[in-house]
Design a protein that fits this description.
Number of helices: 14
Structural class: alpha+beta
Helix content: 25-40%
Shape: elongated
Radius of gyration: 45 Å
Number of strands: 46
Length: 782
């Protein structure tokens, strides 16, 4: 049977106490390790706190390093009820006098009345187009920037309500509604966009076969060039109108009340027309964001310097040292920060090189202080740009070259720019003018590929002028959802120039009878007599003469075949056609067929210039670069562009920056390996060859950000320091584990030894007791 033992019971020896005291002595190295680890853990905590403070400093550099913070502009308007304004970073300071004459408005059309909204109106399809209606010449020119929409009206949607809903569901750029004016229900269709170029033309394909009469679906047709009952069956209740205004006396007209392109960088929102009254618009620099960013940086920098000093300080009064007192890493970081803010920039892209140049000075304790008066003066300095002191900035000497961006590889400096190739756009060049200007189901379907993205389009059937067809083609291509999602668009123009004849001197104002002008336009010659055939014609002004001549030309050649213009009193005639067949000439003869003076009276020594080009449709991608291209195929491609049409891909800009090869992408040129590596500029035009210089600097925000990356980044100084401390702590943990294992074994040894001693002493005690008893017994028996 196993025995039960309890150390010390047999002999009275305190085995547990003895072993405990021995182990307490043996465990002193373990306690030293615990104390050592606690010290390292405190250092980790201190470095973690410093990292947080330095991270805040780095965060403050984000706004400071952005050029946009320094380019913010603000506006003020003398009467904000007339218009409001906002300014972008590309606006310039100035004052403008603005008179709002008219506001832009959208066209509204109203149908005839219907007894109820649920009765059938008609079936078929409705096509809505946008463009400009010329009431003088009774023409409608399609807006090339807006596509047409065809809407099917089936028996399920042929009521007034159904047609309204079908139009609105089609998202055709209009809004349809039903208005009861007391005499009946009217369908009202409003263009969603203001401006004359957004007038509506509504054509109907009526199921009854009569597309323009006043019955069935045709009741909703509105072709402004036709008559009521023949396609103009809705009534215009509000005409499309442009906004008009004068800015510093210059007249402007725009389609929208939001005007973004009248004053560079400024958006005007017109709200009230007050003809005859001017209001003052003032544009000035808004330094609020930049000054806030500078103040935030200075505070964050000062917090960092104070935190570094406190972490390594010694308190002489209490004779206590901070946990990082004397630490080399803290001293190094402090020195690096102080050197960074006190050293000048190597290159002065903006003119300022030191923080002290703009009123930010270093104090005796290492912190920064702002002189607000000097800082404000720096912002207002017309000769220097404070942006370059803080943000990455490039200043170019060529107005057609601009700084875009840079990376951390680009070295500050001034670099020569040499351009060997200007970026170009991909295009489709026609080989001939369109063989027909009538679009139908034989030539309306085209497959267009722009910048590598392909889409199918269908031109609207109808008869066009060349310019109208160009607008229709551009509208359909740019209206393609597939192409717009890919960010691709085109510009369609007529290839070539127009023929013209220009007067060499101010026109005489008296025209003699019997000597008609012989004017030839595109090979068609007509006799033009400005008199009644008997009496001389005398004109009060050259404008009156030009108007009379234009009227005669319209009668002889047709409207808008040739246009009359006046410049410095001299008259010019210009054919509206384009290409080598576009020609204009003028002469005059008397009754006997001999040359007369009327031509020289009106034109002096007339100079004729023939048109150039094919007179065909030129389609140009709106992108630049080698990825820019245009191809068109399909039923009508050869008829529209000629069978020998050609496709030319765009080219990327090419050249060098600082004498080192640079890579081009579109109009962007980026420096390759070398001191300008990563320096990106945009070349928007000009000639090849030497194009001046760019002066580049990275600013204090960039330099400080790089420094802080080297300190608190994943491979930074603090990370290396904390990694070393963590490694030491791990070593201490390993030592503790080893020591604990040894102490456990030692304790077991001590327990075994003293338990054995206890057992031996117990046995000896028992033996002593036995002998004592035996001796006592012998003594008693004797």
């Amino acid at each position: 049977m196993a025995s039960i033992s309890s150390p010390g019971i047999g002999s009275g020896l305190d085995v547990t106490g003895i072993v405990s005291k021995l182990m307490s002595i043996e465990s002193q190295p373990l306690q030293a390790l615990d104390k050592k680890e606690a010290s390292y853990q405190a250092q980790l905590s201190a470095f973690g706190s410093l990292k947080g403070t330095l991270s805040s400093l780095q965060s403050s550099l984000t706004a400071l390093g952005s050029a946009s913070a320094f380019n913010t502009m603000k506006t003020s308007v003398s009467d904000s009820t007339v218009f409001s304004a906002s300014a972008g970073t590309n606006a310039t300071s100035g004052s403008y006098s603005v008179e709002v004459k008219t506001l832009a408005q959208a066209q509204k059309l109203s149908s005839t009345t219907f007894a109820n909204t649920s009765a059938p109106v008609g079936t078929g399809s409705i096509t809505i187009q946008f463009g400009t209606y010329d009431s003088v010449n009774n023409t409608f020119t399609v807006n090339p920037d807006k596509s047409s929409t065809s809407i099917t009206i089936n028996p399920n949607s042929n009521s007034l309500t159904g047609i309204r809903d079908a139009i609105n569901s089609a998202k055709a750029g209009v809004t349809a509604s039903i208005v009861n004016d007391g005499t009946g229900n009217r369908l009202v269709i409003s263009s969603n966009d203001t401006g004359q170029a957004n007038s509506m033309k509504i054509t109907v394909s009526d199921a009854d076969g009569a597309n323009g009469d006043a019955n069935g679906l045709s009741q909703l047709a509105y072709d402004p060039t036709t008559a009521a009952g023949a396609g103009k069956n809705m009534t215009q209740t509000m005409a499309a109108q442009n906004a008009t205004a004068t800015i510093d006396g210059m007249f402007i007209t725009k389609a929208s009340n939001t005007i973004t392109d009248a004053i560079q960088g400024v958006t005007l929102n017109l709200t009230k027309a007050v003809p005859g009254t001017t209001n003052t618009l003032t544009v000035s620099q808004d330094t609020t964001a930049a000054q806030t960013a500078i103040q935030g940086f200075v505070k964050a920098y000062n917090d960092a310097i104070k935190a570094l000093k406190q972490a390594s300080a010694y308190n002489a009064d209490t004779k206590t040292a901070a946990i990082l007192q004397g630490d080399a890493t803290v001293r190094t970081i402090t020195t690096q920060l102080q050197n960074a803010v006190s050293s000048p920039l190597s290159t002065s892209a903006g003119g300022f090189q030191r923080l002290s140049d703009v009123g930010i000075s270093v104090q005796r304790d290492g912190t920064l202080q702002i002189d607000n008066t000097k800082l404000t003066a720096a912002f207002n300095d017309p000769n220097n740009d404070i942006t370059g002191l803080f943000a990455s900035l490039g200043k170019t000497s060529d107005s057609l070259i601009s700084f875009s961006s840079s990376n951390n590889k680009a070295t500050p400096g001034t670099y020569n720019i040499n351009i060997t190739q200007i970026a170009s756009q991909g295009k489709l060049t026609p080989s001939a003018a369109p063989s027909t200007l009538t679009i139908d189901n034989t030539n309306q379907n085209l497959t267009v590929a722009v910048d590598g993205t392909s889409a199918s389009i269908a031109l609207t059937a109808g008869k066009y002028t060349l310019q109208q067809l160009a607008s229709e083609l551009q509208s359909k291509i740019n209206g393609s959802t597939t192409l717009s999602k890919a960010g691709s668009s085109v510009t369609v123009s007529v290839d070539g120039t127009q023929g013209k004849v220009a007067g060499s001197a101010a026109a005489g104002l008296t025209y003699n009878p019997g000597d008609p002008l012989q004017i030839s336009v595109d090979g068609n010659t007509q006799s033009i007599d400005l008199t009644d055939g008997t009496n001389p014609a005398t004109f009060a002004t050259v404008g009156d003469l030009a108007n009379s001549l234009q009227t005669k030309l319209n009668t002889a050649f047709g409207n808008n075949k040739v246009l009359v213009s006046v410049s410095n009193g001299a008259i010019s005639l210009t054919s509206t056609s384009v290409g080598t067949t576009s020609q204009v000439s003028v002469s005059s003869t008397d009754g006997n067929g001999n040359a007369s003076a009327n031509a020289s009276t009106l034109f002096g020594t007339a100079v004729s210039t023939n048109g150039t080009g094919t007179g065909g449709l030129l389609v140009t991608s709106n992108k630049y670069g080698s990825a820019s291209n245009v191809t068109i195929s399909g039923d009508g491609a050869s008829a529209l562009f000629g069978s020998s049409r050609s496709n030319t891909a765009g080219t990327d800009v090419q050249g060098t920056i600082g004498g080192y090869p640079a890579s081009g992408s579109g109009q962007a040129l980026t420096g390759g390996p070398g001191p300008a590596e990563g320096l990106k500029i945009n070349v928007t035009g000009g000639q090849t060859g030497d194009r001046g210089t760019i002066t580049y600097d990275r600013g204090f925000a960039f330099q400080l950000n790089q420094l802080l990356d080297s300190v608190i980044g994943t491979s930074g100084t603090l990370q290396a320091r904390t990694d070393g401390i963590n490694s030491t702590i791990k070593s201490i943990d390993d030592q503790r584990t080893t020591l604990s294992t040894r102490l456990t074994a030692l304790q077991a040894q001590y327990m075994a030894r003293y338990t054995a001693l206890d057992t031996l002493m117990s046995q000896m005690t028992q033996t002593s007791s036995y002998l004592t008893q035996q001796l006592a017994s012998i003594k008693a028996s004797s």
